[in-house]
Amino acid sequence: MEELVRTNDPVLISYLESILEEAGIKHFVADGNMSVLEGSLGIIPRRLLVHSDQIQKARMLVREAGLEGELRPETGQV
């Protein structure tokens, strides 16, 4: 899996999840439950992960949504 986006914004994560789901791209939100450990402050960013064989399509969809600035650099697998 590769990291697509890392953010503290739960609305952004939800929006991107809906885009990916609509396109049939399987994904996983890592660190989504870390708020229990951090006291619900939203300090620890959530990571939106996509399978390596679908990462380019996912990146294209994020760009088309006008959120290119949210993309993580292309560095390889997580």
3D architecture notes:
- This protein has helices at residues 10-22, 35-38, 55-64, and strands at 2-7, 27-30, 46-50.
- With 78 residues, the protein is of the alpha+beta class.
- The protein has a 3-stranded antiparallel β-sheet, covered by helices on one side.
- The longest helix is centred in the N-terminal third of the chain and has 13 residues, at 10-22.
- The N and C termini lie close together (6 Å).
- The relative contact order is 0.31.
Structural class: alpha+beta
The percent range for strand residues is 15-25%
Strand order of the largest sheet: 1-3-2
Report the sheet with the most strands, covering strand number, pairing sense and barrel closure.
3 strands, antiparallel
Give Rg in angstroms.
12 Å
Mean pLDDT: 86
Shape: globular
- Which series of helices and strands comes N to C? EHEHEH
| Number of distinct helices | 3
Low-confidence stretches: none
